[in-house]
Amino acid sequence: MTNEPFRFINPPELGRPRGYSNGVLAPPNASLLFIAGQIAWNKEQQIVSPDFVEQFDQALANVITVVEAAGGTFENIAHLTIYVTNKEEYLARQREIGERWRARMSRHFPAMALVEVKSLLEQNAKVEIEGIAVI
């Protein structure tokens, strides 16, 4: 029995996913929390740093803060979409991003997508993360 509210679905026909799950099955009667896109800003709504990894870390922290405010933990996160303005920078700094991920999410890997976009609404934002949690 797991303490997580859902089952990870990773069919062997798709190969072993690295850093994400192919699907997440929520239990019946679960509440869904839809998390708006979070960028790397602080309480004063100022971007915490121009550094890509720092922005990723803060955006992820902000997602977790929303989940915790709803009564959950990072383990309740079922899906994330990560928007980046430069996928090359993301790829070049994957090791550092992975360290930040593990510090906040341990080895919890929800269903995810990474999308490169031309820009984000906030001019200096390099990363935005939105998600769905099951609580």
What does this structure look like?
The protein is of the alpha+beta class and about 140 residues long. It has a single domain (about 5-135), classed as RutC-like (60s Ribosomal Protein L30, Chain: A). It has helices at about 50-70, 85-90, 95-105, and strands spanning about 5-10, 25, 30-40, 75-85, 110-115, 125-135. The longest helix has 18 residues, at about 50-70. The chain is globular, with a radius of gyration of 15 Å. About 25% of the residues are buried.
> What kind of sheet is the major sheet?
4 strands, mixed
How many structural units, i.e. domains? 1
Please report the distance between the alpha carbons of the first and last residues. 17 Å
DSSP E strands, number: 6
DSSP summary: helix tally? 3
Global morphology: globular
Strand content: 25-35%
Mean pLDDT: 93
Widest beta sheet: strand line-up: 3-6-4-5
Keywords:
single chain; 135 residues; alpha+beta; 60s Ribosomal Protein L30, Chain: A; two-stranded antiparallel sheet; 3 helices; globular
